[in-house]
Amino acid sequence: MAQGLAGVEIAERTGYTVVQVSRLRRRFAGGQHCWTQSDCASGICVGGVCQ
Predict the structure, then answer these.
(1) For the stretch 1-28, what's the b/e string if a residue is b when 16 or more beta carbons lie within 10 angstroms of its beta carbon?
(2) Rounded CA gap, 10 and 28, in Å?
(3) How many domains does the chain have?
(4) The pTM is what?
(5) Is 19 within a domain?
(6) Does the residue 29 lie in any domain?
(7) Could you read off the pLDDT of 19-44 as tens digits, one per residue?
(8) Which residues span the domain enclosing 28?
């Protein structure tokens, strides 16, 4: 996703809502992706990303 752009700006350009942009950023901006708590070394999986 475009780094340095506000979520509102990305939402306007893509047609997504600001909430959707926020969730996508949180899921794909870094961190290990997970499906269950056991997928993460920390044992904490929130929104598809290890915490």
Answers:
(1) eeeeeebeebbeeeeeeeeebeeeeeee
(2) 15
(3) 1
(4) 0.50
(5) yes
(6) yes
(7) 888 887 777 666 677 777 777 777 78
(8) 7-50
